[in-house]
């Protein structure tokens, strides 16, 4: 097997993923005293303001307004200023409080042209700001309605944590909105931190015990512990990347590992195991777990190497997010919120032990790694902190207005299982008589059957983001398609029929509708 | 600026709530019982390796099935319907198998799956494509992993191959009853996953104790160096030790070539499992015919080179006409046999074909279907087990599997602790011209 197969694909493994996760922020400006509106030559009036909680918001109203307003909730943002950190924040970052009115400016422009108004809050606090996000959405909606009496229909939408915010907003204030469009829906704080935390704990346990991971100290000391963890995570990931690139068949463990005898196992198998037990996708930007370079190594690459490399590529973002999100949640909740004190990772692995047996280097090695995890020190959460975390609104599936989800099963930050949970909650609510049937439509995003590319020498060639993998990596057309479906549903009060919805996506090979398609729940809920 | 705090939310929310009756839309269509069936056609699907290293071994499978279906179509089809087979290439890769199986169900809208191949691949595909929720019949899965007979977990699946556990138990019985083999030391080299573990469990269940713990390797992970090391270590064992090879054909080839390199081909009595003992593939992978000569192997089919067998004869004729240019071998035989079972199942389900009806028909009548298999089929209302037995044969230098001792001695058993018993089962004759009339 040629080492060059993986080298090129590993270049930039960490950098692009991490930088994408944490956008560079602009320092917040002084609060506006009142709504300030300006009308540009584009015939769009833009109003900005600051709500009662100090959140900045923005409203854009086109001159050809058709009566429907989209209220957008943005995804999670870093809740701490960062100094310059290679890869993660090369130029340093300040907390970003800027409002967003749509997933991208291209989408915003397109919707405005069609006569839709847009609004969004920057939210008063960043991090896992579900409650503040719901508050921000509510208040920007009020401001828009106060300012523009022609607003007759409202679509709440959002990405990632913003998707959860939009859904929570609609459930808590039924009637405030006419349709909901959660995209790349996040699951609850505990579900998400369990996924990211399991991977981070696994990195600490297998590869680098210097990673603190959990239980950050108060104040400045904790801040520096968090920064130290980011550095340790990066160092460890780079060591793994180098080891696999040097010898894909039997890559060595990082020198920081203290895992003893199990380091005889190819470290790529340990990386894959961590991905499988935490629920991180085995398909990533570069690696599809389905193809290999033409020739004798094709099957070996696709079966043995590709899933592990995908987890490593995805895990780079997941691990850094775990550090930052966990630090934020611990401060927010006042103690440790991640808990694996009773987790049975053998059960967690389940049938994946069989499916990925070749990539895990066989049943004997898999059992050895699981045994090591079983006897490694665990993390116990603070009951009070968890209770506080869970006091935030939990989705009930109390869906009363047309709701359309857009999700990718292979999303490595917010897996499609979050939608499965919503579906389960919705069905339970219908059974309990607290929700009406026929209000939830799920549109799924999938990658091409194969998308990894290889050059003539068999080396993986880096590609731009393939649609259907990655976090919220939807095309403009896809977002506009589902946005239009949601706007129509808001007007009619009904979901599009199955035939209408399928017709809307028929030209997009990466979207599909199947009422029976249910991606696995996040591990916390299994 | 909005100055009120959260206390204003309640009144705000009330103000925003607009009254209005909601008109319910229809729920998206549920699994259709007759998807893939028209008045004149039945669409079936298979996900299996057509290319890649596994494609070298199993690539002929879908073509063989299609050839048999084409033959049936030219002879009137099934209840007036022609069968089409959509074959997708999964390269023996679990993720791609899940993708392709989903494509078969959602895009190709097949009525049923038939002949899906591989344990890791199909167990992932079964869940990913929601075969259970979609109620898609999953016929004659080509793997010996006994788990697929678990009706609670795989409610639409029907096994066809005997399980690896059955095979191991019968191997153990064969060794025990053979006066030449029984006194010899015995060793196992097996794939370290459900395949090998099923086998290890089978030997244990049968009470066979190997002389040393098994040598286990991950799928695709048996290197020449590992094989040579294992054989060198065992070469000092006195006598003619038994070496049971419980892996895929490429692994068997690696071990046999290692034996050639070390001049140890006559040192051991090799027993190859049914999966790894296909002589044509071994020869294609570069194993010398003299090495193959004498290897013991288990099978439940007649040998594909046995032109005296009526099934082989008929399938071979169909292959010549409908699968031009493809050499008839054990894989082609297996594909055509599964296709013939499928035709009988479709016929048994009747003209008003539904997915549930098809599965019920196999439960009720599948054990009576005509088949090339020399051992019984075990379908019933409570069993999704296909064949449940083996006989032992010996490969010759031409790659032919000849019954050990000159006659076929059948054994049957189950995948758990049941006894291994000699069987007097006599299969049904092939339907006239190979066209079922059940």
TrEMBL record, chain A:
Gene3D superfamilies cross-referenced by the UniProt entry: alpha/beta hydrolase
Name recorded for this polypeptide: Unannotated protein
Organism: freshwater metagenome
Lineage, top ranks: unclassified sequences, metagenomes, ecological metagenomes
From TrEMBL, chain B:
Keyword terms, alphabetized: Signal
Entry protein name: Unannotated protein
Keyword rRNA-binding (UniProt): no
Lineage: unclassified sequences, metagenomes, ecological metagenomes
Domain (Leucine-binding protein) ranges: 41-399
Pfam families: Peripla_BP_6 (PF13458)
């Amino acid at each position: 097997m040629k080492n060059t197969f993986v080298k090129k694909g590993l270049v930039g493994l960490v950098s692009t993923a991490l930088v994408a996760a944490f956008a560079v922020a602009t320092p917040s400006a002084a609060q506006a005293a009142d709504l300030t509106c300006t009308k540009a030559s584009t015939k769009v009036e833009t109003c900005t303001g600051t709500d009662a909680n100090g959140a900045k918001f923005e409203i854009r109203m086109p001159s050809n307004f058709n009566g429907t307003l989209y209220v957008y909730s943005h995804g999670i943002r870093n809740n701490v200023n960062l100094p310059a950190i290679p890869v993660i924040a090369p130029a340093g970052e300040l907390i970003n409080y800027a409002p967003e009115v749509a997933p991208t400016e291209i989408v915003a422009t397109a919707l405005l042209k069609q006569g839709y108004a847009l609004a969004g809050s920057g939210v008063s606090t960043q991090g896992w700001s579900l409650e503040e996000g719901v508050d921000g959405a509510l208040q920007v909606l009020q401001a828009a309605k106060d300012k523009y009496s022609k607003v007759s229909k409202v679509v709440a939408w959002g990405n990632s944590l913003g998707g959860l915010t939009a859904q929570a907003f609609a459930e808590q204030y039924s009637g405030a909105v006419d349709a909901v469009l959660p995209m790349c829906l996040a699951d609850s704080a505990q579900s998400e931190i369990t996924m990211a935390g399991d991977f981070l704990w696994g990195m600490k346990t297998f590869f680098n015990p210097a990673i603190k991971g959990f239980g950050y100290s108060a104040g400045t000391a904790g801040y520096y512990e968090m920064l130290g963890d980011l550095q340790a995570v990066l160092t460890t990931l780079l060591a793994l990347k180098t080891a696999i690139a040097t010898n894909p068949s039997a890559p060595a463990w990082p020198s920081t590992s203290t895992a003893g005898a199990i380091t005889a196992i190819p470290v790529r198998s340990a990386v894959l195991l961590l991905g499988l037990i935490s629920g991180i996708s085995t398909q990533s930007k570069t690696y599809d777990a389905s193809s290999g370079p033409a020739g004798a190594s094709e099957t070996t690459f696709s079966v043995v190497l590709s899933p592990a490399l995908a987890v490593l590529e995805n895990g780079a973002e997941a691990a850094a997010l775990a550090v930052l999100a966990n630090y934020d949640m611990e401060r927010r909740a006042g103690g440790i919120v991640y808990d694996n004190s009773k987790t049975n990772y053998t059960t967690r692995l389940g049938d994946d032990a069989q499916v990925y047996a070749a990539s895990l280097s066989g049943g004997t090695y898999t059992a050895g790694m699981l045994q090591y995890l079983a006897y490694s020190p665990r993390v116990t959460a603070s009951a009070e902190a968890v209770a506080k975390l869970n006091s935030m609104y939990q989705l009930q599936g109390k869906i009363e207005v047309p709701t359309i989800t857009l999700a990718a099963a292979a999303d490595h930050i917010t897996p499609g299982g979050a939608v499965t949970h919503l579906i389960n909650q919705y069905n339970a609510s219908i059974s309990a008589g607290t929700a009406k049937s026929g209000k939830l439509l799920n549109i799924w995003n999938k990658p091409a059957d194969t998308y990894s590319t290889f050059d003539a020498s068999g080396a993986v060639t880096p590609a731009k983001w393939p649609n259907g993998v990655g976090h919220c990596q939807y095309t403009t057309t896809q977002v506009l398609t589902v946005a239009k479906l949601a706007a129509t549903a808001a007007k009619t009060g009904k979901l599009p029929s199955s035939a209408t919805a399928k017709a809307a996506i028929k030209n997009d090979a990466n979207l599909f509708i199947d009422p029976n398609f249910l991606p696995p729940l996040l591990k916390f809920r299994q | 600026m909005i100055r009120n705090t959260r206390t204003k939310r309640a009144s705000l929310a009330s103000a925003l709530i607009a009254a209005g009756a909601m008109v319910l839309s229809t729920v998206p269509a549920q699994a259709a019982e007759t998807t893939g069936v028209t008045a004149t056609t039945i669409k079936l699907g298979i996900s299996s390796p057509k290319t890649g290293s596994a494609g070298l071994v199993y690539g002929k499978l879908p073509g063989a099935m299609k050839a048999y279906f084409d033959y049936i179509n030219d002879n009137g089809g099934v209840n007036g319907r022609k069968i089409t087979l959509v074959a997708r290439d999964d390269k023996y890769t679990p993720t791609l198998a899940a993708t392709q199986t989903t494509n078969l169900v959602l895009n190709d809208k097949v009525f049923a799956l038939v002949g899906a191949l591989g344990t890791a691949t199909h167990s992932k595909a079964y869940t990913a494509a929601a075969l259970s929720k979609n109620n898609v019949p999953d016929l004659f899965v080509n793997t010996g992993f006994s788990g697929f007979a678990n009706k609670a977990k795989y409610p639409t699946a029907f096994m066809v191959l005997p399980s690896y556990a059955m095979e191991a138990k019968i191997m153990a019985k064969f060794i025990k009853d053979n006066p030449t083999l029984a006194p010899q030391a015995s060793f196992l080299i097996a794939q370290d996953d459900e395949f090998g573990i099923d086998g290890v469990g089978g030997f244990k269940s049968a009470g066979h104790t190997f002389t040393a713990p098994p040598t286990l390797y991950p799928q695709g992970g048996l290197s020449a160096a590992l094989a040579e090391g294992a054989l060198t270590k065992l070469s000092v064992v006195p006598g003619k030790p038994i070496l049971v090879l419980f892996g895929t054909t490429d692994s068997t080839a690696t071990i046999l070539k290692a034996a050639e390199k070390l001049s140890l081909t006559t040192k051991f009595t090799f027993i190859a499992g049914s999966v790894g003992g296909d002589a044509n593939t071994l020869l294609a992978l570069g194993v010398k015919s003299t090495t193959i000569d004498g290897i013991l192997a288990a099978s439940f089919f007649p040998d594909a080179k046995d032109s005296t067998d009526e099934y082989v004869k008929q399938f071979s004729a169909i292959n010549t006409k409908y699968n031009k240019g493809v050499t008839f071998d054990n894989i082609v035989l297996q594909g055509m046999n599964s296709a013939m079972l499928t035709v009988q199942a479709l016929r048994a389900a009747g003209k008003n074909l539904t997915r549930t009806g098809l599965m019920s028909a196999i439960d009720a009548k599948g054990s009576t279907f005509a088949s090339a298999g020399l051992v019984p089929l075990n379908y019933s209302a409570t069993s999704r087990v296909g064949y449940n037995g083996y006989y032992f044969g010996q490969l010759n230098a031409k790659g032919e599997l000849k019954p050990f001792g000159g006659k076929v001695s059948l054994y049957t058993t189950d995948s758990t602790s049941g006894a291994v018993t000699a069987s007097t089962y006599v299969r049904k004759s092939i339907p006239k011209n190979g066209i079922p009339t059940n």
